[in-house]
């Protein structure tokens, strides 16, 4: 099975190579992981070929999952030929979970700089995907402000950037004006970082649990909204429109995206 | 895809004589391949908890289960003891954090030797009871003499080739810990970072032990003010430990599992700290015991004679190892996320089954019928 038909057609416009200098934010919750979406994004980026035959490359850095897990998942869920892509340096997986210095900001920046330069090989369009850099905020390593500054520096080096963040209510509540309690530093920092990134993003793709509780044939709700960054971008550069639909990740790794109320099978 | 097909082929009944099976799977006790994926799983010591874990019928090696409990009860502690006792029965290395040897001395003893529970899951509840009684009698007679017979029972069983995957325990008995049992007590440091030693000690033990030895990490009531100083709940201490533990579980994915209990009374689920701890764990269960009043009311009805205990609380599954990480959410046939489950802790087992409200008081006929309905164990 090729990776192309592993991507639901409704999502294809959002998972194409994003315009230059753009930022995409993917958010997940405790029960609804966005790994299936990230895996498909990576495979879609690696499949991309433009008219002039220019190549793309992906640097995937994760603070929550190790490199071998990602290799397995990219192969299983998205049908990516991981070995080939890694060998040609079109795919670089940076493991900040098992790396001892994976939580030191300076090391992270220099590691990613090296990875991006290697992946670029002159002309390649590199997309940087950071999975859960907000872990650094949870570990009390840095502040939202410093982290966004580092992220901005890294964004100047690549074609486009995607950031996966946890968006559970306790981690976002501090940004709400209706917050009832005084937020703890960790809540304030994660909320600040998520809001900051969403304001800069071209669009935000979020997955979350069904509001009505779990269902046998629905994994969760997928929502695509324009981020604050879209106003600065030239009109028509972003392919998709805003949408909300249900999705189902099946045991074999296949994904179906469907409208509310429509039958899955 | 080739990957999926190969997984289907590795089933438990094929495992002993299957040629393509990894050698470690047959050499280790208490480990078997998941019927769904290529992961190896081990028992939590509680059969109905094994059944809940996303159809893998066990806790996948390399994963960590966080069990949260509200209120002042310690039902989660019972699950933890079963998990620790199960590990000892299989000769796994046990790492117990923050408590003294007394905790391990109170582990539940073996109730009876019954082969894999799933094999006889078709039998009715009554037959279960009969089998239990038959096996229990000689066992009880032996225990009156001294703790020694119980001990020999343990060692005999580990010698038997067809060691049950999940043992049955009796909370009223005590598991005699064999002299050669590998139990490592990790003391908490009396400084700002009491959890500092946990990952270090685990790392050291893993590097020194044989590569096919399975380790179990047990952390009872983490952050409880009775044992931990207030500084332990600082994100830099608690979440850093959880993150390092996650890394360690991934690095030694084939031989380490962990079970942690967390009292929710001081650290509610709505706090960022607990949510991050949940995000850093592979599986999250929440126990909500019913108020004590309801306990007393059900005791009056005397329903225990029929072998059916009333539920003592609700159980919620928020996250499942492997399944949630792949993004399946609550979907899928054997997925327990979002279901209304209840738990009952009796002398011999911790049972988890679907929750259904009891019929109205005084409605005798309805009550009898409801007994039959709720009597069903969790079936997948």
From TrEMBL, chain A:
Highest taxon, organism lineage: Eukaryota
InterPro entries named in the record: ELP6, P-loop_NTPase
Metabolic or biological pathway: tRNA modification; 5-methoxycarbonylmethyl-2-thiouridine-tRNA biosynthesis
Entry's Gene Ontology BP terms: tRNA wobble uridine modification
GO-annotated cellular components: elongator holoenzyme complex
PANTHER family for the chain: ELONGATOR COMPLEX PROTEIN 6 (PTHR16184)
Family: Belongs to the ELP6 family.
Protein name as annotated: Elongator complex protein 6
Automatic annotation (TrEMBL), chain B:
Gene Ontology CC annotations of this record: cytoplasm; elongator holoenzyme complex; transcription elongation factor complex
Pathway listed: tRNA modification; 5-methoxycarbonylmethyl-2-thiouridine-tRNA biosynthesis
InterPro entries assigned to the protein according to its UniProt record, in alphabetical order: Elongator_complex_protein_4, P-loop_NTPase
Domain of life: Eukaryota
Record field: compositional bias (Basic and acidic residues): 365-380
Compartments, record wording: Cytoplasm; Nucleus
Keyword Glycoprotein in record: no
Span list, region Disordered: 356-380
Annotated keywords: Cytoplasm, Nucleus, tRNA processing
Biological process, per Gene Ontology: regulation of cytoplasmic translational fidelity; tRNA wobble base 5-methoxycarbonylmethyl-2-thiouridinylation
Family statement drawn from the similarity comment of this UniProt entry: Belongs to the ELP4 family.
Protein name as annotated: Elongator complex protein 4
């Amino acid at each position: 099975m090729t990776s192309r038909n592993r991507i639901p057609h409704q999502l294809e416009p959002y998972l194409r190579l994003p315009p230059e200098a753009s930022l995409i934010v993917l958010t997940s919750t405790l029960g609804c992981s966005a790994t299936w979406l990230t895996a498909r994004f990576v495979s879609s980026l690696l499949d991309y070929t433009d008219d002039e035959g220019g190549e793309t490359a992906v640097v995937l850095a994760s603070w929550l999952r190790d490199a071998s897990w990602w290799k397995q998942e990219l192969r299983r869920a998205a049908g990516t030929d991981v070995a080939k892509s890694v060998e040609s340096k079109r795919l670089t997986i940076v493991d900040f979970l098992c790396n001892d210095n994976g939580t030191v900001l300076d090391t992270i920046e220099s590691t990613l700089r090296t990875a991006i330069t290697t992946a670029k090989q002159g002309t390649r369009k590199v997309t940087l995907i950071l999975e859960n850099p907000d872990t650094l905020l949870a570990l009390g390593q840095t502040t939202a402000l410093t982290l966004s500054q580092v992220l901005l520096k890294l964004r100047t080096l690549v074609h486009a950037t995607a950031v996966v963040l946890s968006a559970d209510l306790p981690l976002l509540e501090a940004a709400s004006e209706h917050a009832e309690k005084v937020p703890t530093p960790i809540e304030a920092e994660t909320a600040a970082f998520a809001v900051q990134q969403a304001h800069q993003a071209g669009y935000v793709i979020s997955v979350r649990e069904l509001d009505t509780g779990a269902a046998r044939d629905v994994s969760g709700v997928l929502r695509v909204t324009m981020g604050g960054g879209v106003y600065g971008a030239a009109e028509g550069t972003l392919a998709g429109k805003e949408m909300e639909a249900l999705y189902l990740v099946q045991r074999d790794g296949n994904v179906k995206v469907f409208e509310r109320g429509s039958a899955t099978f | 895809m080739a990957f999926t097909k190969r997984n289907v082929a590795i089933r438990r009944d094929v495992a002993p004589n299957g040629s393509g099976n990894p050698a470690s799977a047959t050499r280790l006790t208490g480990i078997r391949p998941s019927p769904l994926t290529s992961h190896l799983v081990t028992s939590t010591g509680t059969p109905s908890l094994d059944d809940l874990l996303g159809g893998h019928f066990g806790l996948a090696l390399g994963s960590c289960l966080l069990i949260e409990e509200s209120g002042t009860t310690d039902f989660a502690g019972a699950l933890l003891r079963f998990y620790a006792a199960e590990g000892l029965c299989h000769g796994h290395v046990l790492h117990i954090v923050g408590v003294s040897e007394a905790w391990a001395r109170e582990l539940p003893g073996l109730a009876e030797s019954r082969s894999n529970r799933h094999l006889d899951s078709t039998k009715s509840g009554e037959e279960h009871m009969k089998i239990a009684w038959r096996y229990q009698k000689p066992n009880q007679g032996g225990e009156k003499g001294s703790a020694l017979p119980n001990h020999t029972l343990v060692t005999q069983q580990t010698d038997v080739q067809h060691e049950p995957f999940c043992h049955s325990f009796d909370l009223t008995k005590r598991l005699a810990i064999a002299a050669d049992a590998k139990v490592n007590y990790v003391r908490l440091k009396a400084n700002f970072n009491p959890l500092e030693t946990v990952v270090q000690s685990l790392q050291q033990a893993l590097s020194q032990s044989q590569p096919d030895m399975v380790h179990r990490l047990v952390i009872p009531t983490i952050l409880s003010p009775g044992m931990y100083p207030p500084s332990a709940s600082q994100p830099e201490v608690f979440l850093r430990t959880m993150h390092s533990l996650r890394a360690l579980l991934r690095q030694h994915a084939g031989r380490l599992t962990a079970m942690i209990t967390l009292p929710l009374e001081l650290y509610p689920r709505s706090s960022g700290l607990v949510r991050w701890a949940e995000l850093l764990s592979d599986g999250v269960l929440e126990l909500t015991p019913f108020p004590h009043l309801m306990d007393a009311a059900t005791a009056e009805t005397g329903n225990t004679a029929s072998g059916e205990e009333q539920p003592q609380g609700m159980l919620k599954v928020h996250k499942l190892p492997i399944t949630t990480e792949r993004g399946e959410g609550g979907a899928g046939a054997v997925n327990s996320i979002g279901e209304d489950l209840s738990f009952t802790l009796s002398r011999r087992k911790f049972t988890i089954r679907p929750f259904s409200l009891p019929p109205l008081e005084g409605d005798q006929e309805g009550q009898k019928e409801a007994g039959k309905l709720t009597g069903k164990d969790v079936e997948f």
